Amino acid sequence: MAFIKNIEHEEIVRLADEISANTGQVVSKTLAQNSCVSITLFAFAKGEEIGTHDSAGDAMVTVIEGKGRFVVDGREYCLSAGETLVMPARKPHSVHAEDAFKMLLTVVFPRNDSET
């Protein structure tokens, strides 16, 4: 049973090549998801965004191609390929694509003691 899906196993891959977005799109590709962690690739077309929301877990974004703008609790961050930002749990945040860009999102959720 594979815990990581939608990506080749035992092969070298370039994450940026695994996803693309056409004009007017935000595309996501889930690689893993359970009650503890979620790992998702995103591709944003120029001008697209994900509006303000929050998460029960800490959300770590790594830009893998292009540049993205992130607003966390009112503070703006501009990230380029290879840069990472952690957006703390429960803080409102949004994602904006002034130009097309791609990112890897990893969310780590609080442990649910009933699962132990």
TrEMBL record:
InterPro entries: Cupin_2, RmlC-like_jellyroll, RmlC_Cupin_sf. Transmembrane segments: none annotated. Gene3D superfamilies: Jelly Rolls (2.60.120.10). Residues 41-108 form the Cupin type-2 domain. This is Cupin. Coiled coil: none annotated. Signal peptide: none annotated.
